[in-house]
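Lecture 7 notes. Example A: sequence first, then its structure tokens.
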Amino acid sequence: MIKAKKIDRTRAQESTNAIEKLYISMRHLFSRGFYKPMGVSGETLRKSLLSLRPEIYGSIAEDRIELNGLIYVIERLPKGIEECQFINLTAEEGYSDSHFETIIPPKRRRNCYRIDKDQMNIEITRGRSEIYDILTHLTFLFIESHKIQERVTINEGKDFIREWKYLEDIVIYNKKITEQEREVAIAHLGNILGRTFDEVLSTHKSLQVEGNIDRFFHLIYWLGKLAINEVLENKKRKITFSSVLIKEIGHHIYGDVWANNIKKVLKENKLLNRPIHIISANMHSVLNSIYAKSALPKEAEEFEGFELYQLLSNANSKPLQKRVKEYASKNGLIYIKDTSGTNINVQVIDTDKIDFENSPFQKVNSLDKNPVIIVMDYAFGEQAYETMDELLKPYKNNKKKNHLVVKSISIMGKAGILEGGKGDIMIPSAHIFEGTADNYPFKNELSKEDLEGFGVKVFDGSMISVLGTSLQNKDLLKFFHDSTWNVIGLEMEGAHYQKAIQSASKIRGNISKKVKVRYAYYASDNPLETGATLASGGLGMTGVTPTYAITQKILEQIF
């Protein structure tokens, strides 16, 4: 008998296993209803995250504190969460009608409520992906907090290093400090965090907010303080899931309301039986592409090509943006602000009311058909299936079914790229669902050739729909890129959208089998490059060209 040789697992295989463990563990904890992140119940989550060592969390497995990852996470969690011992994830349960202030993180649209000094409630209306996102961010945050605790306690917890006492004096007493004293505190903080003065100074500036210049000091102090309370006083932090959330999750509660609101607006405006083109995108590129030149004739003469869209993308161009929106609302645009809880706003555009003589587009494909365009804001992970599945269902009115005449569905958005850099474009030919062998090949109406000539690189191949962008590391991504899967990038919604489209068109008969599908993404980051992950910052003006290039090609094919 030949003895099989033992083969060591690669880092990519270990990473895949760690991701599987993370998700099994998170779903188990969710079903359980509560857990203590730094206790026995949260151990699998912590170990899996430390084993995975995602790029976005940087030096999570090292002794020093990870700063870029900290900024990334804090911008996606509610202000003050570092002070809370109890975090409660809830469904939409009426807090918006209470006296509690609604706290919305700067980089994630989610409603949060500070119940008291020890408790933060986070409203979950976007499905399981949002729960995974929050739990991994919190696990990272708590791991970092215990690093602080270990670095500042001495004599078996009976005393603390002098740098910590200096920081505590500033934070607890809200001490007003001079610029010189601030630099002293930053130097002390460098010793606490195991980071250089420059690194700490840069992070301090990044986290400054109006009314609280020294937010970074408060953040580090409270993270460390709650970790100290856990270790020395056994005051464990606890995450709970409300019973309503546990019952509602996965049942399309919010997606159903959202989709019906849209169909109701279509019916009220006699648009329900017209040809429909759905676009999943941001709330500005389709609007500006169709209306900006007509709304801003003087600016359009001065700024050629995409320069006009760059002008509109400036933070100080609010008056110009307002003029475009006002013009659009008089020429076929209906804005549907979300009230369902999905946090997905919608624009309905009646193309019959567009002034095509002054538009950059000509009616060729849709001549005499007068289609309707539905632009839906970005979904989040699994929420893409829920919203698209509900939108493609017939509209039931007085027991009568109205099937939507959906002619095309276009998905555009940001994604991580595995070859190339920020601002480059990816044209997928298939979506692969991470952690499974599930794959969704399709005929993409957009081609690589369509997007060439705009001054950015264009790649085509498979895209992987990941369980969470914050759970990827270089070993895993390199495997996807170098193997015969031929993966060019990663995002979170593609497989979910395609699953909904295929079931609606090929199985359930909700829409035509001949529905045209378009997918295109522009690169927000390259996680295979050091310093080029999402934690390194946003796209800025780099994103204008690819965004409007993709939008232009989608609209050209529709019109």
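Example B, a different protein, same format:
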Amino acid sequence: MSTPDLVIRGGTVADGSGGELFEADVAITSGKISEVGKISAKGNEEIDARGKLVTPGFVDVHTHYDGQVTWSQDITPSSQNGVTTAIMGNCGVGFAPCKPADHVRLIQLMEGVEDIPEPVLSAGIPWAWESFPDYMNWLSKRDFDIDVGAQLPHAALRVYVMGERGARRDPSTEEDNAAMAKLAGEAVRSGALGFSTSRTLNHRTSTGDFTPTLKAGEDELTAIAGAMHSQGRSVLQFVLDLSTLHEDLPMMLRVAEATKCPISFSITQNDKAPNRWRQTLDEINAAARRGLSITAQIAARPVGLLLGLELSRNPFQTHPSYKAIAHLPLKERLAALHQSEVRKAILSETATATDDPLFFRPNYDKMFLLGDPPDYEQPPENALGPQARRRGRQPEELAYEAMLSDEGRGMLYVPFLNYADGNLDATREMLIDPQSVPGLSDGGAHCGIICDASFPTYLLTHWTRDRTRGEKLTIPFVVAAQSRKTALSVGLTDRGLIAPGYKADVNVIDYDRLHLHPPKVHYDPPVGGRRLLQDVDGYEATIVSGVVTRRQGEATGRRPGKLVRGAQGLAN
């Protein structure tokens, strides 16, 4: 055996297959795993993994790095959480194809749907492309700290072909469908892993308009999916509304049946119909038994809004007295909020109606202090409403004081999906369903209201080690779910396993020390834009294509990551 480039010594291996943990060395040569077992040869580089957990790199199938990959080579925060491959272009939004006249339109859509600030996008995106193949060719010349894969976004495609008619959601014509299908086929040939669309009322532009794809016809979706899948394996990813699920899910299943295209969509528990997820999983399992390739993407914890003075939203944002000072910089606003007359005025007012889909009239029985360490599965009695009643106070007062803490950086946590029962038992059932994979981390998005790119770490810490309010999951199950299973769901059969011949994407983890810190606001995107990040401890090393990209939680500066062009298999 030739000298390995890298040997990971004596780790406890969760190999991604779901099988039992075992102790072994792992040798890496020329970017691939060359041997697993007792390895006598000394590597050019060695990592002592005794007492550490060794896993495949995680594959995150639901991110929104479409803009970030154009201005940054470090795909944080995903790369800080053990992710070695991230799939972007989800939910029908992205930046290619795009005519110059539509740059602002697509930026407004991304800002509204994914809460990525317009100034960041306007300053950061170079628009060095028009077509989707141009976008892929441009990205293929860039190096990253992880691999990135792209999907063709329906909104961009529809506006590109139909112009204003597409933006205002007019039905497509046969000619429109043929044109979109042609471009979709070209996208797959250029390396698109799939096509994404959205049919939810929650997805709106920053000016309040609904997404162009909201009511796209079955004929349009069938033409696009069929054209893509005829050119190579291609996944159709979509987001549906609970209110129209009874119509839209059967339609999407018909599209899948007609085109033989694998489909992947998000399932969450909704407060309005807390048991609908069971019926939905039953429907997709029945479809799978009919031969359809179908995957449910499941959030690892509640999809939770973070509210605060430094963030996009807070409970008092519609109160007239708060609106009067909302434009002030944080320091000046904080000074005003400390004034007794301002406090009294704001607390005497009530929230008013707004068409913002992510602003809910405050329900203080579902609003928590996240804590340190952050606790995403708190009992209902921890909420501000019950706390206030026990203390003979108003919950608004507690919320106000919490946001003033830490020099105005205090945050409130509102779990608005996957928490109808006040625990994560339903989430556990969803995660263990045979048709499900972990998803919905939204890495790169929701910069000022949601911080869920830490899902991969949370799956390991909470579900296998820290959970106290219900059953846990095993390390082998969790590792397989977010490495091999996610990789297979998007056609990447070359990764997600620690076995000879597979791509050498590996994590070495100090499992006992693995720990998430509370979210904090950082101002590191272009033009000093804002985004929420969570520091994490415990990743001893992250390896991409055999190259160590992170050690002890710090970037090494090496960037072996590339654009993934199309479905990938093992080399012969």
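Note on Example B: The first strand starts at residue 6 and ends at 13. The longest helix spans residues 174-189.
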